[in-house]
Amino acid sequence: MTDWMLATLGLAPPIAAAMLASCRGSSGNRLVAVQLMTGLVTVMLAVMTFAFDQSSFIDLALVLSLLSLPGTLLMTVFLERWL
Amino acid sequence: MSQLAIDILLSFMVAAAWLGVAGFLRLRTTLDRIHCVTFVNAMAGMALTVVAFISDGPSDRALKILLLTVVSLLVGASLSHATGRALLLRGSAPEAEGLAHLVVASDAHDADGTLG
Q: Domain range spanning residue A11?
């Protein structure tokens, strides 16, 4: 097992914890937990690029990072006005 | 030597992720928890960028990871600001009780075109 694969596995528990945190608490806490999870998954996808030697994973991480901007902004508008 | 640096930086990156999540679970208020998101983005992202350049050199993959880190930092800053502002306006942040009028007043000030 390579170092990159170990790092990938090491990032799984924090992602699981962030996922659990996004299922409980107030709306604001859930939104921040989703932001944390997005950052962790982005890092994990980038590490998986090296672990599996598949360069397409880094494109997924870039797309996820770019799409998190409009998605989270939309959720903040909902949080600000209606939730 | 480079393999040792890669191991150390990967360990640092994973430790930063664990520490960020531990801080998120430990801190009490939502506004405090936003700092943990920034911590994970900054520390893990920078460690990943350095380890990618050590491992690959200036390859396409390493440059994409550098771009990813820069995008994460910029997007993360914008989103932290937007989330904090929403929490203040919504009154979801207990420590910011009574501060929403400051945000609204600041917006009205900006709309006037005056410098605040």
A: 3-81
Q: Are B83 and A76 a contacting pair at CB < 8 A?
A: yes
In a domain, B77, yes or no: yes
In a domain, B116, yes or no: no
* Cα B76–Cα B50–Cα A31 angle in degrees, nearest 5: 20
Work out how many domains chain A is built from and give that number: 1
Q: Flag whether residue A2 sits within 8 Å of chain B, measured between CB atoms.
A: no
Q: Which residues contact B62 (CB under 8 A, 6 or more apart)?
A: B49, B52, B53, B55, B56
Written as tens digits, the pLDDT of chain A (83 aa) is 788 999 999 999 999 999 999 999 888 899 999 999 999 999 999 999 999 989 899 999 999 999 999 999 999 998 888 87
Grouping H, G, I as helix, E, B as strand and the rest as coil, residue A1 is coil
Tell me whether residues A72 and B83 touch, CB distance under 8 A.
Answer: yes
